[in-house]
């Protein structure tokens, strides 16, 4: 389960961008891998999802959100799970948290 402590308060301003998302009325299974999914099925699903994100008017807001809350699953703003984890590792190494 995702750590919800990083989520901002439930304000419309934090979520309003989702109303304009290209994926809003699509089957969200395309953006989240099922258990046991392997290539080539996974690569094809990710390619289709990222193509939708590439045309999405709110992809930047979506990606910003996923990075902010450290979303562990799915394609968000055209970025996959592995890409987000790599981004977060780079961000943490550039700005390490001091030991308590």
UniProtKB/TrEMBL annotation:
Its cofactor is [4Fe-4S] cluster. Pfam families: Whib. Binds 1 [4Fe-4S] cluster per subunit. Following nitrosylation of the [4Fe-4S] cluster binds 1 [4Fe-8(NO)] cluster per subunit. It is found in: Cytoplasm. PROSITE patterns: 4FE4S_WBL (PS51674). [4Fe-4S] cluster binds at residues 23, 53, 56, 62. InterPro entries: 4FE4S_WBL, Whib. Residues 22-86 form the 4Fe-4S Wbl-type domain. Keywords: 4Fe-4S, Cytoplasm, Disulfide bond, DNA-binding, Iron, Iron-sulfur, Metal-binding, Transcription, Transcription regulation. The keyword Ubl conjugation does not apply. Upon Fe-S cluster removal intramolecular disulfide bonds are formed. Belongs to the WhiB family. HAMAP family: WhiB (MF_01479). Acts as a transcriptional regulator. Probably redox-responsive. The apo- but not holo-form probably binds DNA. This is Transcriptional regulator WhiB. The gene is whiB.
């Amino acid at each position: 389960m995702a750590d919800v402590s990083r989520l901002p308060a439930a304000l419309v301003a934090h979520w309003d961008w989702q109303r304009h998302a290209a994926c809003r009325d699509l089957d969200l299974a395309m953006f989240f891998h099922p258990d046991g999914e392997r290539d080539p099925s996974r690569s094809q699903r990710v390619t289709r999802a990222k193509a939708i994100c590439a045309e999405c008017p709110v992809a930047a807001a979506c990606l910003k959100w996923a990075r902010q809350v450290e979303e562990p699953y799915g394609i968000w703003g055209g970025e996959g799970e592995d890409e987000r984890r790599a981004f977060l590792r780079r961000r943490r190494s550039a700005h390490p948290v001091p030991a308590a």
